[in-house]
Write a structure and sequence with these properties.
- Catalyzes the NADPH-dependent reduction of glutamyl-tRNA(Glu) to glutamate 1-semialdehyde (GSA).
- It comes from Halobaculum magnesiiphilum.
- Pathway: Porphyrin-containing compound metabolism; protoporphyrin-IX biosynthesis; 5-aminolevulinate from L-glutamyl-tRNA(Glu): step 1/2.
- Its EC number is 1.2.1.70.
- Keywords: NADP, Oxidoreductase, Porphyrin biosynthesis.
- By secondary structure, the chain is an alpha/beta fold.
- It folds into three domains: about 150 residues, Glutamyl-tRNA reductase, N-terminal domain (Beta Polymerase, domain 2, 2-Layer Sandwich), CATH 3.30.460.30; about 130 residues, Rossmann fold, CATH 3.40.50; about 120 residues, no CATH class.
Length: about 450
């Protein structure tokens, strides 16, 4: 495949959308979305990522209009202002910003790197990434994300959504000797449990559908802890002062009946889709969600402002470098296609010319080399100017010229060459160029 891809993307994130809108943009199976995008005509690559504060999809196609059309119906139930459409360059830069943590609710958080990696592996598993322009863009984004954390203080303090939730809880209730319940034992549940472990709470219970996973998280804590199955939620919620939910389930796990006997309880919902019914329980149960964490995360953003500026500069430089790499690659692909097409035609015509010449008498090795050298010289001289023009077109973002060249010099094209005014024998072979017979007869 010749890599002339143009990327188009679409994003629904906390920057422009509410929790409900992000939830509406989520799909049950992101890999199925990747497969669906790949099935659309002209799409060469596809990628989708879903986290608690974003839902995004990207495609690469040979034509920008095809790429845009492929993603234009993403999140059809979300209001227009909450959906951000990204063209080729916007997509490349946005992916770098996402990987660096600049687009995260918690500026510089580390979890997004693993989420990008996992999403890329899932897309690759269904053929969504195949070494083309989108695959390259994701690889570059992850490299930038790693550099940002290694070379700046963008993630100083390792604040995560889990720790932000605990900080919010500390502002709304007294955590000293409090009892906490973590619902979910995935990555976000683990981060929340660790953040609670560093707080003044006296007991932490981890509830999960798979008890063994909950036991693994609980065993990681220094605070007195226990692991329970999801069926024990009502009893544990009744004893808890703080509930942090992050299961990743498709339906709410904490419902009215879950907190019916909870009394004074603060529930913080980190799930996407929602893990806690918004008005669960009575007036004594306070429910908070990701939108309520903005005060905490804004403060973290202010603390990391100088680091963010350094990362912005890093992204600017890497973005320019990536564009130059793509330009060189596209020009090289076009030039290679042109030379491959010319080589195929040269070899075919050379065989026919040699056969024609052999009809006048057996050729010597020197004579054969003369004909081959002439063919090589003709190809080189004829393609020198187009080669220069294609590289200049790439440097000037003239992709129409590049795309036209790809169509004209398709390496798979195997039809007879167009030779206006050129004489051909009755069997369709061309006569050797003027002067060749005379030159050979003189040798």
């Amino acid at each position: 495949m010749i890599d002339t891809g143009v990327v188009a993307g679409v994003s629904v994130s906390h920057a422009n959308a509410s929790v409900d809108e992000i939830e509406s943009a989520h799909v049950a199976d992101p890999t199925a979305l990747v497969s669906e995008l790949l099935a659309r005509e002209g799409v060469e690559e596809a990628f989708a990522i879903q986290t608690c504060n974003r839902a995004e999809a990207y495609v690469a196609a040979d034509d920008a209009a095809v790429a845009r059309t492929a993603v234009e119906r993403f999140a059809p139930d979300v209001r227009e202002g909450a959906v951000v459409h990204l063209d080729h360059e916007d997509s490349l830069r946005h992916l770098m910003r996402v990987a660096a943590g600049l687009e995260s609710l918690v500026l510089g958080e580390d979890q997004i790197l693993g989420q990008l990696r996992d999403a890329a592996e899932a897309a690759r598993g269904v053929g969504g990434l195949s070494g083309g322009v989108l695959d390259d863009a994701l690889s570059k984004a992850r490299q930038v994300g790693k550099r940002a954390r290694a070379e700046t203080a963008i993630n100083e303090g390792s604040l995560s959504l889990g720790s932000a939730a605990v900080e919010l809880a500390a502002r709304e209730t007294d955590l000293a000797d409090a009892s906490a319940l973590v619902v979910g034992a995935g990555e976000m549940g683990l981060l929340s449990a660790r953040a609670l472990d560093a707080s003044p709470v006296s007991r932490i219970v981890v509830a999960n559908r798979t008890l063994r996973t909950a036991e693994h998280v609980a065993s990681d804590l220094d605070t007195e802890s226990a692991a329970v199955g999801i069926d024990a939620l009502p009893a544990e919620a009744a004893a808890a002062d703080v509930v942090i939910a992050a299961t990743g389930a498709t339906d709410p796990t904490v419902r009215d009946e879950t907190v019916a006997d909870a009394g004074e309880t603060l529930c913080i919902d980190l799930g996407q889709p929602r893990d806690v019914v918004p008005d669960a329980g009575d007036e004594r149960v306070a429910v908070r969600d990701i939108d309520d964490l903005e005060t905490v995360t804004d403060e973290a953003r202010e603390r990391r402002a100088s680091a963010a500026e350094a990362v912005e500069g890093m992204i600017d430089a890497e973005f320019d470098r990536l564009l130059e790499e793509f330009k060189r690659k596209r020009a090289d692909d076009a030039v290679s296609a042109m030379y491959e097409s010319a080589e195929r035609t040269k070899q075919r015509e050379l065989r026919e010319a040699m056969a024609k010449l052999e009809a006048h008498g057996e050729l010597t090795d020197d004579q054969r080399e003369t004909v081959a050298a002439l063919a090589d010289a003709l190809v080189g001289q004829l393609l020198a100017a187009p080669t220069k023009s294609l590289r200049e077109a790439a440097a000037e973002d003239d992709w129409e010229t590049i795309h036209t060249a790809m169509q004209l010099f398709d390496p798979e094209f195997d039809g007879p060459p167009s030779t206006p005014g050129g004489a051909r024998s009755p069997d369709g072979s061309a006569d050797p160029p003027d002067g060749v017979l005379e030159r050979l007869s003189e040798e």
